[in-house]
Design goal:
Blueprint: H1 4-32, E1 35-37, H2 38-45, H3 49-57, E2 64-66, E3 69-73, H4 74-83
Pfam family, one: HTH_17
Organism: marine sediment metagenome
Domain Helix-turn-helix: 36-83
């Protein structure tokens, strides 16, 4: 007979491992991405997207408009933060 408690315990442990792996992958992606779109840059800076869009349009945040979309360099954003 199968011990369902053990099965659930194993499944919970595996789910926890998968969640941890997902968190690690997300952190790794955050480190390796150099050029970001507005949503990625807002997440990186922990800004609301509307706020970042407004600051970008005002020329207060380093960015380039490419094909109608804003692009942000992670290294330039880090420099900008250090200057602020």
């Amino acid at each position: 007979m199968i011990d369902m408690e053990k099965v659930y315990g194993i499944l919970e442990k595996n789910l926890e491992i998968l969640r941890d792996m997902g968190d690690r992958i997300e952190k790794l992606e955050a480190v390796t991405i150099e050029v970001m779109d507005l949503a990625q840059a807002a997440k990186f800076l922990q800004f609301n997207e509307r706020t970042l869009r407004k600051l970008t349009r005002e020329g207060k945040v380093p960015a380039k408009k490419i094909g109608g979309s804003w692009r942000y360099s992670k290294s330039r954003l880090l420099d900008w933060l250090a200057e602020s």
